[in-house]
Each structure stands twice: as C-alpha cells, then as structure tokens.
Write a structure and sequence with these properties.
The structure holds 2 protein chains of 2 kinds. In chain A, 57% of the residues lie in helices and 15% in strands. Chain A contains 7 helices and 11 strands. Chain A has a 6-stranded antiparallel β-sheet, with no helix packed on it. In chain A, helix 5 packs antiparallel against helix 6 and helix 6 runs antiparallel to helix 7. Chain A is elongated. Chain B is α+β, with helices and mostly antiparallel strands. Chain B has 3 domains: 110 residues, Immunoglobulin-like, CATH 2.60.40; 180 residues, 3-Layer(aba) Sandwich (Rossmann fold), CATH 3.40.50.410; 94 residues, Sandwich (Tumour Suppressor Smad4), CATH 2.60.200. Chain B contains 11 helices and 25 strands. In chain B, a hairpin with a 2-residue loop joins strand 14 and strand 15. The radius of gyration of chain B is 40 Å and the shape is elongated. At the A-B interface, helix 1, helix 2, helix 4, helix 5 and strand 11 of A face helix 1, helix 2, helix 8, helix 11 and strand 25 of B.
Chain lengths: 295, 467
C-alpha cells in the first residue's frame, strides 16, 4: 500500500468513525438531565466517543500493514485507550470551553457566530488531541503520540468548526451534528495522515515479493524489520529472521543495521553491518528489496 | 438572538419590589465542572443605599432556568456566607480623571485656588477612601487618565504608595487634557491581571468622553484613529468580572457612564462636595464588603446558558435580580427526541469498517513490467509498462516504449530490456550511462525489484511474481 492509499484509508475510517460516534453521542446527550452532575455526564459522553473513534482508528494499522491478525487487537486496544482518552479529553475540552467561553461570552454581540463555535471548537480540538495520542500509546512511541496529538488537535479543531458552522449555515438541516461528526472523523483521519507523513524521515517502498508496492513510513526512532508480525516493518513470507534488521534514526540521520548474520543485508549491492542511508538507496534484506525515498 | 436581547439578558435586571434593592454582582461558575457548584455574589441594600447585613440564608431564594422562562427553585443552598467580599478581600482600582476641566472649580467656573479645584476634591476623597479601608485582605491601586491612561500604582496592600502617587498627579499640558474615558476604562482592566475574588473599578469623572482623535483632528499618539465605544469597557470588565462604580461630579455628565456601571453590576453616584464623596466611597466599600455569597448545586438541564434568579425578602420589601452563566457543553444540546433512524449510521459504519478489513490488499501475480517511480528531470510518457515483446526501449525518442521527455542527458534509445525466451529472463543493455541498484552497468540480467536509473528516471523492474 502506498502512503497515498494509507491516507485514503485513514480518511475513510475517519468518516466511518464519525458515523459510529453520532448515534452513541446522541443517546448519551439525550439523557443529560438524568445525570447527577456534569462530571460523570461528560466523562461518559467522552468515553463513549473516544471508545468508538479509538476502535475504528485502531483497525487502521492492521488494515494498512496487511496483517489482518492485528485488526482485532488494534480495535480492542484502540477502544480501551480511546475510552480513557475520550473521557479525559472531553473533560479537558469542556474545561477549556468554559474557561474560554466564559471570557469570550462577554462579547455578547457575537455569541452565536463566534463565541459558541470558537469555544466549542477549542473543546473539540482538546478531545481530538487525546484520541489521537492513543495510537502512540498503543505503539509505545513518543513520536507517534506526537503525530496523533497534532493530527487529532488540528482535526478536532477543523471538525469542531465544521460542526458548529454546519448548524449555523444550514439551520434547516435535520441532523447538523451528524454532518459535524463525519467531518470531525474525516478531519482527524486526514490530518493524522498528513502529520504522520510530514513528521516522518522518509519512506521505504517494498519492490518485490507478496507485499510489493507497500510503503513503510519511517516515523519511530527504532523500527525492526523481519518476518515476525510484531515488527514495525513486518515482512511475513520473506525468507529472513524474525527480527533481521533495524532502522535507526539518530539526529535526523537514518541508518540500517543487520541484526542476524545468517542473511545478507545490502545497501546498493554492498554488504553492510550498519550503514547510513540516503534517499535513493536500494536495500536488499534477504529476498526483500526496498527503495528508500523521501516521497 | 439579537444583539439587543442578549444585551438585555446580560444587563442586571434589578427589580425593586419594596424597600430593598438587590444586585447579583457576580456569578462564579468556575467550580461547575468539578464540584457542580455555582457561587453567587449578591448585594442587598436599603432604599437609602446602605447595605443590609445580617440577613439569614432563609431570606434568599435561588432559581435556575434553562430558557429564562421556567424557573426551578433550588431547594437548598450548599453554602451561605455573609460579608463574603470583606473576608476574602476586594481588589480596588481608583481611576482619577486628570483632564483639563478637573482644574476648574466644583461649581463649574475657572479658579486659581487649588483648594477649590475638582482634582483636589478627588484626591481628598481618595485619601478618605484609603483610611476607610479596614479589611486587611483588601488591595488597592491607582490610575489617572486624560488623553492618556496612566497606571500609577498596581493593586496591592501598600496604601502609602497610593497616597504618595496622588502627589504625582499634576495639571496636564493642553495636548494631554482630553478625556479618553472609555479607552482608559478598557485599559484599566489589565491592572487586575491575576487578581482573584471581587474586583472593582472606582472611576472619578467630571465630564464626557472626549476623544483626542475626534476633537483634535489628529490621530491619537497611541490609539491612532480608533475611537473607543462605551461597550468596550463593558465587555472588558465583564470578561474579568470587574464591577465599575462611577462617581460623577461637576456639572457635565457622561451619558454612557451609567450604562457602564449598571451593566457591570455597579452604581453611579453623584458627589458635589468633598464630604459627600468620602461618604460615597465608604458606601461602595461597605456594599461590596457586605455582599452575600450564595453557593448552590447547579441543575443538569441542557442549555447554552443558565439563568439564575436571586430573590431576597426583608420585612415588607422584596427584590430580585437575574443574570446568566455559560453552561453549554462541547457537543451542544440534545435532540428533541430519539429515533430508530439513529441506528442506521451506526450499522453502516460497522459494515463499512468490516468491509475495509476485507479489502484484498496483497498484490496479484501478473506480467513482468517496468514501473517509473519518479523522474528527477523531465517526465516519463508512462508510469507502468507491461513487458510484452522481446525488446523494450527506454529513451528520449518518441518511438521508445517508455519516453523520457525533457531530460537532455537521455539518448534516443538509452537502454533496452531484452527478453530471453529460453531462460524466460530479462536483461538490460545500456546504450547510454545507466545504473542498476545505484551501480553503473553496461548490461545486466534483471532480478525482481531491481532499481534502474536512466538519465534521472527511477524505474523498477517487477518480474510479476508474488512468491
């Protein structure tokens, strides 16, 4: 899968996540008066939202890595992290909304057109941030957490604005919040994909074998390459060790190291133990051929 | 909602039904999220303006409404504290008008006698106010204004500094003698940065807003051509929870100063002589200090803002005031009713995710082909070319199978890929300089995934197999 296809899948999953969140959120919202206070109400609302967003986005890794066994685990873990992130995120977003809104409210001339949409979008952005961080927590990667946070923040802000202004611009729309949630999910997916690409150190494109055409973003400090499905660059079906080689990123420099002597690792047809990579290099790890490129 | 009606909501709707007055000076909803509680600061005064202290909790009724129409009575206050302003301290900022007219006499005429000048009455009133400040937690600051706003002493507990700074207020030059009343009140707000609890501006004014840019015909040195509207200090003060008390003296009055005071929860006083002024200051202090703090548990009715009404009854008199606080949630208001239709997007989403996981993403076996990954210079006529014949030409010629356009280093037939039917293998032969896997070659048998560079075009050889 190319990086473009990955972005498209993330965007599609975002829309699906938005569609899944909407009814669940409406259900919780409907029962607001039944809650004793805002704290449990918002925690439940955030948890439900985060759970669904996290579950849907959690499947992305399994889908795009073409390792289907990762899908159920990703879904479950994504849901769990989303649940916690959503609850904390919505409470933080609500605090931001009230803090900002209470101050901005006083400019009452623009209550509906500015204060409400802007302050709510701020709340959405904080929620998106927490949901986005989930992917980094799942992968135990600070870099991925940063990608998720930024992608979620921008996506949340964009989606939040869209949600608010959809209701303002189309007052006759029956379910403006549905449109908003769809845009929110889409925005989180799109921005996650864009930020992920923007913050990566390049792409390894697989040129031969069953997974040929697949591209791996180099976005973690250490990425293992091997047959095992647990590797960041998992190459099941290619004859090599479970953990054959490693991509290392140090001070912006990308290098490749061979971890197991049984299989040769070559860069531009020269056998290496560890070698710095530059864009355009051709890597051979056993039968796998990879092209290192910037875009 | 129209601008007017929102303004009307914001306005302190103090209705006097008897011999007492009630003002809902401030709503503090900062503990709403964590504790579900809202604090109301309520001032109750007698008809003559004296604060009524000693009222019991039972004298107050608190109502909350999600729409401003139907009010639900709060059954029980979770906390009640009389004289809440005094014990927690109040931050005051005294703002003295130092425009040219302040050097006229109180009655309106020109005078050379400093004792008769308004500015000296004002200074005397400030001194009197400072002596009346008995609360140890109170803080006070000083500012003056004319064409320019000048913060003289930041709010603090050192009253001596304020007394000292009064001496620094001297007659302005003609260019400085304008009255930037609204601008100065707006700027005064920043003096309260970081201050907690009740905050009050006491402004001494003897005349109308008289902006420099409007009346001198020149841009203001700081504000340029901007003319401040009276709504700007209102907005700034409400944002920071600051109440404005205005003291009018002299024959001219600013017609908007009353709006500023009333809309921020304060009052306007008229003081025509020194003794009266001192009394007014004491009264303000007593009023703020005597405010009651009513804490109640907020309801959960969904609303963008909640209206709070406080009613107090004392003797035969009763009064009430209404104000609102911000209560919207990130997701907004719920739907009027739930429908089974809600399940449709949920099910569709589930189906969509399931479908996405079923996408067949593995590559399928196919014919051997060349794929152009990218070109450093120029462009390629095709992105992917199945290797159908015995000979495939890559080069700059339009007759080539893959034509590299706009790359000057590329020959007409720069490289040729030959098919050997016996071995069913492919060999590349360079007419010009080529590399395979970044190694210069003249001729070479191709393997799956080999990367060929032809004059800056990166081409991958795909043998079509997926094993």
């Amino acid at each position: 899968m190319t990086t473009l296809a990955r972005k498209l899948i993330l965007a599609a999953l975002g829309i699906l996540a938005g569609a899944a969140v909407w009814p669940a959120a409406e259900l919780v919202l409907f029962f607001q008066p039944r809650f004793a206070s805002y704290l449990p109400f918002l925690a439940v609302l955030g948890a439900v939202t985060g759970l669904l967003l996290g579950a849907v986005f959690g499947t992305a890794e399994g889908i795009t890595s073409r390792i289907k066994s990762r899908i159920p685990a990703g879904l479950a873990l994504g849901a769990l992290i989303g649940l916690a992130g959503g609850a904390v995120g919505l409470l933080a977003g609500q605090a931001a909304l009230w803090l900002f809104g209470e101050a901005a409210l006083r400019s009452y001339r623009s209550f509906r057109t500015v204060v409400l949409p802007v302050s709510r979008a701020v709340g959405w952005a904080v929620l998106g941030l927490f949901v986005g961080v989930g992917e980094g927590v799942r992968a135990a990667s600070l870099k991925k957490a940063a990608v998720g946070a930024l992608g979620g923040l921008i996506g949340g802000l964009a989606g939040g604005f869209a949600l608010e202004y959809a209701a303002l611009l189309f007052p006759k729309l029956a379910y403006p919040r549905l449109l908003g949630f769809l845009i929110l999910g889409l925005a989180i997916g799109v921005f996650y994909g864009l930020v992920e690409r923007g913050l990566s150190y390049g792409v390894l494109r697989l040129l031969a074998g069953p997974l040929k055409g697949k591209e791996f973003l180099l976005n973690q400090r250490r990425m293992n390459i091997g047959q095992a499905r647990s590797n960041q660059i998992a190459l099941p079906g290619y004859r090599m060790a479970d953990r054959q080689a490693q991509i290392r990123i140090r001070r912006g420099e990308v290098s490749l190291a061979n971890l197991e002597p049984g299989v040769a690792v070559l860069v531009n047809e020269r056998k290496i133990q560890e070698s710095r990579l530059k864009y355009g290099d051709v890597l051979a790890i056993g039968p796998a051929r990879l092209f290192f490129k910037y875009e | 909602m129209s601008k007017k009606s929102i303004a009307a909501f914001l306005l302190l709707a103090a209705v006097t039904a008897g011999a007492i007055n009630l003002s809902l000076a401030q709503i503090d909803a900062s503990r709403l999220l964590l504790a579900q509680e809202v604090d109301l600061y309520v001032g109750v005064t007698a008809e003559d303006g004296r604060p009524l202290s000693g009222l019991p909790a039972e004298a107050f009724r608190v109502y909350e409404s999600a729409d401003g129409q139907d009010y639900r009575e709060v059954r029980e206050l979770s906390a009640f504290k009389p004289a809440a302003g005094a014990s927690e301290g109040i931050t005051f900022l005294l703002v003295i008008d130092n425009s040219g007219s302040m050097y006229d006499s109180v009655r309106g005429g020109k005078t050379g006698d400093p004792a008769l000048m308004r500015v000296n009455h004002a200074k005397e009133a400030v001194r009197s106010f400072l002596t009346s400040m008995t609360g140890p937690a109170d803080r006070v600051g000083l500012a003056s204004y004319n064409t320019f706003y000048r913060g003289l002493v930041a709010p603090g507990q050192d009253r001596e500094r304020v007394t000292g700074a009064l001496e620094g207020i001297t007659r302005p030059e003609p260019e400085e003698a304008y009255t930037e009343l609204y601008a100065s009140l707006t700027l005064a707000v920043r003096e309260f940065a970081g201050a907690r609890g009740r905050k009050a501006v006491i402004i001494l004014s003897d005349g109308e807003n008289f902006p420099y840019a409007q009346h001198s015909g020149k841009p203001h040195p700081e504000f340029k051509n901007k003319i401040f509207a009276h709504t700007e200090p209102i907005r700034a003060c409400l944002e920071e929870g600051i109440t404005v008390y205005a003291v009018n003296f002299g024959p001219t009055r600013d017609r908007r100063l009353r709006d500023i005071a009333v809309e921020t929860g304060g009052q306007v006083f008229d003081a025509s002589n020194r003794g009266e002024l001192a009394g007014v200051y004491r009264r303000i202090h007593e009023q703020v200090a005597a405010e009651y703090r009513l804490t109640y548990r907020a309801g959960m009715q969904p609303a963008e803002r909640k209206f709070v009404r406080v009613r107090a009854a004392q003797g035969g008199g009763a009064a009430e005031a209404t104000r609102f606080y911000f209560s919207t949630t990130v997701f907004g208001l719920p739907l009027g009713s739930l429908s089974w239709l809600l399940l449709v997007p949920f099910l569709l989403a589930g189906l969509g995710v399931w479908g996405t996981t079923r996408l067949r993403l593995e590559s399928r076996p196919g014919p051997a082909r060349l794929e152009v990954l990218h070109t450093r210079v120029g462009s390629a006529s095709t992105r992917a070319l199945p290797l159908a014949g015995a000979k495939t030409v890559i080069g700059g010629s339009p007759k080539a199978d893959i034509t590299i356009v706009g790359a000057p280093g590329v020959q007409g037939e720069h490289a040729t890929v030959l098919f050997d039917p016996k071995t069913r293998g492919y060999t590349i032969v360079g007419g010009g300089d080529i590399t395979v896997n970044n190694r210069p070659v003249k001729s070479r048998r191709l393997e799956a995934g080999d990367v060929i560079d032809v004059g800056g075009a990166t081409i991958v050889f795909d043998d079509g197999k997926t094993e």
